[in-house]
Amino acid sequence: MSRPRAQLWNVEGHGLRWHLVQVCAILPAQKYAERERMLKKFKDLSEREILALAIQNEEEDGRIFGEFADQLREPYPATAQMFEEMREEEAAHRDRLYATFRERFGDHIPLIRREDVKGFLKRRPLWLVRPLGVDAARKHAQVMEMEAVRFYQRAATRVTHIPTRELLNRLADEERKHSETAGELEEKHLTESARAAEDKSHDKLFLLQVIQPGLAGLIDGSISTLAPIFAAAYATHRTWEAFLVGLAASIGAGISMGFTEALSDDGSLTGRGSPWIRGAATGLMTTAGGMGHTLPFLIKDFRIAMIVAFLVVALELATISFIRHKYMDSPFLQVTFQVLIGGVLVLLTGILIGSS
Asked: Shortest CA distance to 184 belongs to which of 86, 64, 74?
């Protein structure tokens, strides 16, 4: 006798939705558990696999140091040279491991990677951490050195072949000294003049990636929104309506400028960094520039609101002039005159249209 339809979909008092939720929750956990069972424990590795893993690790670390050097060569040449020498040291370690492996096990090296063994730190792919910062690269290198030390220390305890054990202990000592070596290389290459040049390069990148997009947004938001806001204020003589117009104009301009900046240049050729960071800086500063002289219209008294708005506009124009003078090395009086002319023309346009 078949069970009632209701019981088919309500096993043990639970509905079909409950069972689907349980299945969706269990499957990822089962996949993770299966993945963990597939990983080999370090204590189960043979001496042949330990040497093969050491060779793989040295090759990977060397490639990472080489990638750091290539990425930082133009903006930070001294740091790039430091990573290049560290890559050469990793290559020397790899060659010594190669020689020992060939002597003991022949030319065929089994494919075993750190991802196949439990206990290794998971590394983010380099393409996920770009654009690469010099501080991030140095910290990444420190973590790699610490992991290499622990690996060789554990590997030496698992090996009974005396020459191989001596090699692993020597490599552990050399990796332990890598932090000191990195400091020596940093002192060697990052002289005062080199560090000053890199600091100047860092300031230039900050200027290209943050200051310029943010300033463009501030100028657009502070000046372009003057006309619609003051036109609405003089046309209606109602502060709330003027506030709504300013709010819409500021947010709309921020979204438009943000997307325009983000889509105009991906930064791969110009070196201006992430387009989304530049777009966010431009959009936020555009909105901030417009909201500065929009907020005074929350004041109910029209005359007081207008006085405060005019003062805010003057402060905004002075701020733009100061930023251009400080970061763009422009003469202060010249940039003040340019910004003042532009702001006054847009402001008068809004007032004349609203009063007509």
From this structure: 86
∠209-213-216 over CA atoms, to 5°?
160
Q: Which domains does the chain have, with CATH numbers?
A: 5-38 (no CATH), 42-190 (1.20.1260.10), 194-355 (no CATH)
Write the single-letter amino acid at 132.
Answer: L
**pLDDT tens by residue, 134-190:** 666 777 777 787 788 888 888 898 899 999 999 999 998 888 776 555 555 455 545
pLDDT tens profile 308-317: 999 998 898 8
Both tokens of 69, joined, read 């050097």
CA proximity to 217, closest of 247, 260, 177: 260
Q: How far apart are CA 107 and CA 52, in angstroms?
A: 11
**What does the angle CA 265 – CA 266 – CA 271 come to, to the nearest 5 degrees?**
90
Omega within 30 of 0 (cis) for the link into 131: yes
Contact 221, 286 (CB under 8 A): yes
Is 316 in contact with 335 (CB distance < 8 Å)? Answer: no
Amino acid, res. 352: L
Contact, 121 vs 147, CB < 8 A?
A: yes
